[in-house]
């Protein structure tokens, strides 16, 4: 192949992403803009695919693909999810995001997407709550302390300013360290609980981000108070089949990644048994953000938001980082051709 001039791509490593330090508001705005584009059908989303090297209980790779037309970017992210990495001193999730020109296929950038994965997951959780939780929600119950959990709590608190935050995870050292970090960063008390019930019972917003090796109904429907919002997104389901029976609205990030025939997900059994179908689904979150469907309409609504993870959010944050890197002169310019 010959070209008239060299072509370069931008590389942002983990240190670059850390230095760029996207603010809470920068993260939320970028991801909400991508959701709006999705709602307005200005995106392409391919359902994620999985690569399982040996045993899904040990870990697997997720491959997410999409196009955000208003940004002029296509993206493919590969993220490993390996639950026992803490034993090796490694993050459980590590990722690489590749960005391309959707008109020509030319590579544009490569980014360390480990932090992007955490930030965009937290942003989707928080934006789901923005549109589906009671405005006066003051108690958060959060199960799970993996990488994405920190940004769930941080960005939710940014929007709601909780009076009470409870967190739980299986390992005491993990939940205690998680609570301590959040307390220091948020400037308020965060309580680490020893069991699921004391964490989530009666909370206004319940987030389930557990790391179960196999589906197990740990989160009981009876613990959810009327008017609450529940956000389950563990890879393996941790909820009872009856959970959807008490919901007024069920919203997902992308039905294409939730439909029958796909593995994993918090409501997988509900979809496969037809308790949740495209007809009973209230909306995709992007439709609500774009103003095409209503979010919460009554204080008494009990709602559920299930997200699988959007490539669009990764692309949006990748774009935000690249623009900020240009302004600050960060990143490496690598010759591609």
Automatic annotation (TrEMBL):
Fetch the Pfam families from UniProt.
OCD_Mu_crystall (PF02423)
Q: Which domain of life is it from?
A: Bacteria
Protein's name according to its UniProt entry: Ornithine cyclodeaminase family protein
């Amino acid at each position: 192949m010959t070209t008239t001039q060299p072509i370069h791509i931008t590389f942002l490593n983990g240190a670059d992403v850390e230095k760029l330090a996207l603010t809470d508001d920068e993260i939320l705005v970028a991801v909400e803009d991508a959701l709006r584009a999705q709602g307005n059908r200005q995106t392409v989303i391919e359902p994620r695919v999985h690569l399982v090297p040996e045993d899904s209980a040990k870990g697997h790779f997720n491959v997410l693909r999409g196009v955000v037309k208003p940004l002029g970017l296509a993206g493919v992210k590969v993220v490993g999810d390996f639950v026992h990495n803490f034993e090796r001193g490694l993050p459980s999730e590590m990722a690489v995001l590749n960005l391309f020109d959707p008109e020509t296929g030319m590579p544009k950038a490569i980014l360390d997407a480990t932090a992007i994965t955490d930030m965009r997951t937290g942003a989707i959780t928080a934006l789901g709550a923005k549109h589906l939780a009671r405005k006066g929600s003051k108690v958060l119950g959060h199960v799970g302390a993996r990488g994405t959990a920190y940004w769930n709590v941080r960005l939710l608190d940014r929007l709601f300013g909780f009076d009470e935050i409870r967190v739980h995870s299986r390992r005491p050292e993990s939940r205690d360290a998680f609570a301590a970090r959040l307390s220091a960063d948020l400037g308020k008390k965060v309580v680490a609980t020893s069991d699921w019930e004391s964490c989530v019972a009666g909370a206004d917003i319940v987030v389930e981000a557990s790391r179960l090796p196999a589906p197990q109904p740990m989160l009981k429907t009876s613990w959810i108070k009327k008017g609450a919002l529940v956000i389950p997104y563990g890879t393996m389901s941790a909820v009872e089949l009856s959970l959807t029976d008490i919901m007024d609205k069920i919203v997902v990030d992308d039905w294409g990644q939730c439909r029958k025939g796909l593995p994993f997900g918090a409501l997988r059994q509900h979809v496969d048994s037809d308790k949740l179908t495209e007809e009973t689904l209230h909306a995709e979150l992007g439709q609500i953000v774009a103003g095409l469907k209503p979010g919460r309409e009554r204080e008494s609504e009990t709602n559920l938001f299930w997200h699988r993870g959007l490539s669009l959010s990764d692309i949006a944050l990748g774009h935000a980082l690249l623009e900020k890197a240009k302004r600050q002169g960060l990143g490496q310019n690598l010759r591609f051709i």
